[in-house]
Amino acid sequence: MDLSLLLSGVLQLILSLVIGIVFIYAGFRFFHKRINAINEIEELKKNNVAVAILNGSIILALVIMVKNAIEPAITVFSMAIRNPNATFISFLQMAGIMLVQIIVAGVIAYIAIYLAINLYTHLTKDLDELGEIKNNNIAVSIVLGVVIISISLLMQQGIKSILDALIPFPSISLKDIGL
Question: Residue 148: what pLDDT?
Fold first, then answer.
């Protein structure tokens, strides 16, 4: 059994879980404060399915966009862990790079979703989407949810390119990963 590989896998699971929960919770809180027309918590308590669909779409869109930052960051972080020659400083540098990359991706994702909701609702002036969703109009919620998820799918490669340009990973040789 390869103990370093096992440790790396366990650490990847823990980091993914923590990052996922933090981003989902932060996303829920962020949009709770930004979408003034709907009090999501109160509407969810009233069993408002349309609000649940909208919130679920926002969470899924966040995960889709941030996933591109999490996967490579955790991969590089796990390679640093498996490297027997890695120093504590290099470990901290990798952790810092990973954290900055994930935070930047999250900020971009939050802004993109917020803009998508606002632009789409502005373009469709004939329909008050958020008012309809507050009134439990499931059809409107599904359409707005699909718009949000579609935007996230279209933007995920762009976010990856921005992150690659802003926060390039240091070059890693075979020696760095212990080969």
Answer: 92
- Rounded CA gap, 2 and 114, in Å? 44
Per the CB < 8 A criterion, the answer to whether 59 and 24 are in contact is yes
- For 86, the 3-state DSSP assignment is coil
- Per-residue pLDDT tens for 32-56? 777 777 888 888 899 999 999 999 9
For 109-130, b where at least 16 C-beta lie within 10 A, e where not — what string? bbebbeebbeeebeeeeeeebb
Read off the pLDDT of residues 20-32 as tens digits, 9 standing for 90 and up.
888 888 877 777 7
Domain residue extents for the chain: 3-166
Which of the four pLDDT bands, split at 50, 70 and 90, describes residue 176? low
Strands (E), 67-126: none
**Chain centre distance of CA 76:** 18
Q: Tokens 């996967």 identify what position?
A: 71
Per DSSP, 171 falls in state P
Judge whether 78 and 14 are in contact, CB under 8 Å: no
**Model confidence, pTM:** 0.78
Q: Give the containing element (helix H, strand E) for 162.
A: helix 138-166
Among left, alpha and beta (phi > 0; psi -120 to 50; other), residue 47 is left
Higher pLDDT, 149 or 25: 149
